[in-house]
């Protein structure tokens, strides 16, 4: 057996084992990975502040900037959730009627939705999501603690890595680390910009069609756009379903659905590729596979960090001859 064949077989055996280990250690490895992505994203702020402030003070300033951003995201999530719950409460009878009509239509086409049992399951899912708020808060607090403790240690860790490797490997290690951090920042910057475009366009479309909660649908699509592919599809569903209740016996729900779909398709397939270019170098198939794998490993959190982690894996594999074939498989064809 050649060395290349042996390496392929080792990868095929070790990768599933590593993924299973990551899935089993969700409570530890997921916060560590998310914290690493966050630190890589905000590190330029730390570097800029160190030019004018002492190191400890600059770390505190970076943490404050990150806190403001985090509070903004939390406020957006709370605002959207509160408005949607309020809308459901105000139109509860209409939602029940719409669900019964949808059930009757599905039964005629042989697509059972479960009737009252299916409706009860939907309510149970909603209650479960609200019930997980405490668990999510605990994980966010743990991630925040890791970021606070990790930011001052970045420079120390960099010096340790440089000391651990010989002169011939030292530049390669630092180059790989800098490239990974740069790719993560490029990805997050582009995603934030396209999320703003998606959210703004969604809100304007809702206002133009007279759909209630226009700001909520814009905020929801802004947040969901951080989950590639899946978030884009999910963002179409809630406003379209709400349109069925607000505009019964009308063609407006179809028009609203088409409009939200056109926004997502345009941003995802035209604007995003133009802004991102080929800087990530991930193939479209690799993106979908990465979302599936990391989503299975860590759920929604895994999908949020799937692209940065996959890019990091690709860059690391590219620096070793024995794993370069993995980087070639993941990369976009040139």
From TrEMBL:
GO terms for cellular component: membrane. It comes from the Bacteria. It is a multi-pass membrane protein. Keywords: Membrane, Transmembrane, Transmembrane helix. GO terms for biological process: transmembrane transport. The chain crosses the membrane at residues 7-26, 32-49, 61-81, 133-151, 193-217, 223-244, 251-275, 295-317. Pfam families: AI-2E_transport (PF01594). It is found in: Membrane. Belongs to the autoinducer-2 exporter (AI-2E) (TC 2.A.86) family. This is AI-2E family transporter. It comes from Methylobacterium oxalidis.
């Amino acid at each position: 057996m050649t060395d290349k064949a042996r390496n392929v077989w080792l990868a095929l055996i070790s990768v599933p084992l590593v993924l299973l280990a990551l899935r089993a250690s969700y409570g530890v490895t997921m916060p560590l990975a998310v914290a690493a992505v966050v630190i890589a994203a905000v590190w330029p702020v730390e570097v800029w502040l160190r030019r004018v402030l002492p190191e400890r003070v600059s770390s505190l300033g970076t943490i404050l900037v990150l806190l403001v951003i985090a509070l903004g995201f939390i406020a957006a999530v709370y605002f959207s959730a509160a408005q949607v719950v309020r809308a459901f409460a105000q139109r509860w009878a209409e939602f029940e009627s719409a669900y019964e009509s949808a059930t009757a239509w599905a039964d005629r086409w042989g697509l059972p939705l479960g009737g009252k049992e299916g409706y009860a399951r939907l309510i149970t899912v909603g209650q479960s999501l609200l019930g997980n708020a405490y668990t999510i808060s605990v994980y966010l607090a743990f991630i925040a603690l890791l970021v606070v403790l990790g930011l001052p240690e970045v420079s120390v860790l960099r010096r340790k890595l440089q000391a651990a490797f010989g002169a011939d490997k030292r530049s390669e290690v630092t180059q790989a680390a800098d490239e990974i951090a740069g790719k993560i920042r490029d990805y997050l910057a582009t995603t934030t910009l396209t999320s703003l475009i998606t959210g703004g366009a969604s809100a304007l479309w809702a206002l133009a069609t007279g759909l209630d909660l226009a700001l909520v649908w814009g905020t929801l699509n802004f947040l969901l756009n951080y989950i590639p592919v899946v978030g884009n599809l999910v963002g179409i569903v809630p406003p379209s379903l709400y349109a069925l209740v607000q505009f019964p016996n009308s063609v407006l729900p179809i028009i609203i659905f088409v409009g939200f779909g056109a926004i997502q398709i345009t941003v995802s397939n035209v604007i995003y590729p133009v802004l991102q270019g080929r800087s990530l170098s991930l193939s479209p198939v690799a993106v979908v596979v990465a979302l599936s794998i990391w989503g299975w490993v860590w759920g929604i959190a895994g999908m949020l960090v799937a692209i940065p982690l996959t890019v990091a894996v690709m860059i690391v594999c590219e620096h070793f001859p024995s794993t370069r074939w993995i980087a070639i498989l993941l990369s976009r064809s040139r």
